[in-house]
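Run folding on both entries below.
>entry_1
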Amino acid sequence: MKARKEMVRMGTKIGAALGGIAFLIFGLVPGFYFGSYGTLVVLKHLMGGPVEATILVRMVVAVGILLGIVCVGSVTIVVGSILGTGLGYLVEAVTAPVEVKETADVKTQSR
């Protein structure tokens, strides 16, 4: 039972690490793009037309960029850990019958 928990925990950690690496490779630029574009769309709707490049708008866009990067990063890490947990359960399920068979063999040999 303890080995099962360790296998699943290890899969979760590996999945989260791979999700973080995938974010750094594939997610940083889209997070930047979606955060800035989404902020500009929201500002356009709030102000009722095209947005001028004032200091306030630039600061709000910078916050939107950070928010977009954080959101994309958290999604990739969570999805990676979910996939890693699933793989941990799969590996545990594949190796579990082998462990049961080994304990049965040890019991028959001790008699």
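>entry_2
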Amino acid sequence: MAALLREYKKYIGVKTEDEPVDGIDIKVLGRGCPTCDHLVRELMAVIEETGIDAGLEHVRDQQEISRYVVMGLPAIVINGKVADTGPSMSRARLKELLTKAGR
């Protein structure tokens, strides 16, 4: 419930404190296009499938995205570092990235 409230506050533009996440911290950088939304759904499926403890956030704010200096969108940031960019990330690639980060 707290996570839902925090995300709603972000959505309406209220500044919120980021809470520390247990496990892996994943951010999808993208303006909300269908490709970005698909990537978020795929990541949710991979997280559920693998049982990895992870927090997932979809960052749509252009200023926030520009902090990561990425050349293409969507991009995946895992634990503060850009892990991959581009629209063609397969589920196998996502599993690989998350398993590697979980070690």
